[in-house]
Amino acid sequence: MAHSEQSEEPSVALTGEELQRLHPVKSFVRRSARLDDRLQRAWDRYAGHFLLDMPRGERDLEVADDFVLDRDFVRRAWGNDHGLVIEVGSGQGENVAAAAKAHPELNFLALEVYDPGVAHALLFAGRDGLENLRVAQVDAQEFFGHLADGVAEEIWTFFPDPWPKMRHHKRRIVQPSFAAHVRRALADGGVWRIATDIEDYALHVHEVMDDGSLGFANAGTITVSLPTEHVGKGNADEAAALPHADFIESERFDGRILTNFEKKGLAADRVIHDFTYRKA
């Protein structure tokens, strides 16, 4: 069921930063979703092995304050010391499962908030015996604060929720604060791979990531043209008439399979924007 909380109004005026800590902006909205029989069987059968067992925090989808995912935790949970790749928002689990199957020399962690997505990832892991794949049902923004410095080789964020309405752009997961967590969690030379099929989100990524102040270098090799102003959901068709500028992006990441979600975007004539940001 969807999680809800009630709290008393503060007795003193709080700063914006303090309010953000009390009520952080989420990049997702919890929705209740009943698992069908097949997914429920997968959860019951495989969760004990593939779903990470972590001490939980007081809030929904958060882990305990003192939890740290470091190399020692990786060795215990995966049973080896291989490099770690983290996918933020694994959706139906198709991509991370395919990557785990193709790269047994790496460990993979799928982060997902929705029950059906978690269950699908568990189903793929169990069906294909993917011992290098683990799943965590967590709020990624909160969870990244529990990652040890340099614990991950790569971090993937493919087709995040675009939050198309202008007033919701603050909910987009690619933000300076999250980028700081990503950079800290990456090993030296590690990369953050991002993909979106929403033009306005592509502009947002460039605005957050390209100026170098966050300690990332854009490792792209191709030039694309994008509007230089943001549009909301209702006026997205007006983007073509706006001033445009050139930006650097990446070729399609060949380690990402063509999922059903991406196929739908292509069928709707959307352009896929790929980004590779290397820890500088």
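the 2nd protein, sequnce then structure:
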Amino acid sequence: MQYPFNTVVKLSTGCSGTLIGQKYVLTAARCVHDGVTYIKGTKNLRVGFRRDRDKESGPEKAVDDDRDFYWIRSTEVKIPQGWKASNGLNLASEYDYAVIRLKRKHDNDFMDIGVGSRDVIYPGRRVHFSAYDDDNSTDLMYRFCPISEDNSDLIYHYCDSKASGVGAGMYIRVWDSLTREWKRKVVGVFNGHMWVESRGSSDDFNVAVLITPLKYAQLCFWLEGDYSSCNGRN
């Protein structure tokens, strides 16, 4: 129930997400859209927040989503045009991100978005993310591992995960010279497993879409509704 773990949410479609505002959730596009149309369940999409059981009295009971999570409905889902343009044939992983707008504000903390520039994203740099691995479990699983490879749009890594972890925000710790403290910034969205052609051979990785300057501008516009409000944000 403490930051950064209270920024993690579960989607009713079976994926994970990360809070990036008082009414906004960052997740993977594939969690709500298959490249052709919105997947089943997106129309009535709900976002699950873990209850603070320490504030409740009475004996502990078996895991029950209706008791251990409270849900907020979504009112809007934003997906990049590049994901829809694939027509479901060869889904473009570099566009596998989406933002969900909630019907009402939540009471949890939320993460800042950062740009995955070359000075902060490189092989060997440690990335972190958390997710609820099973639909019927309240166990929040936290991972961290080094980046294996990267390119201009994707992060390749070997962090262990399950399918329900797709959509989780991957973050790094960066030093803020003004406040003189370490801060966490989401720089990618976990997309799952992928076979990758590299140096003439195939290898399998877990993959995250990298938040580039253009993607950052898109996300900022979805949140702010005005590009001028995004000037100077990082």
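The chain is about 10% helix and 40% strand. The first strand starts at residue 8 and ends at 11.
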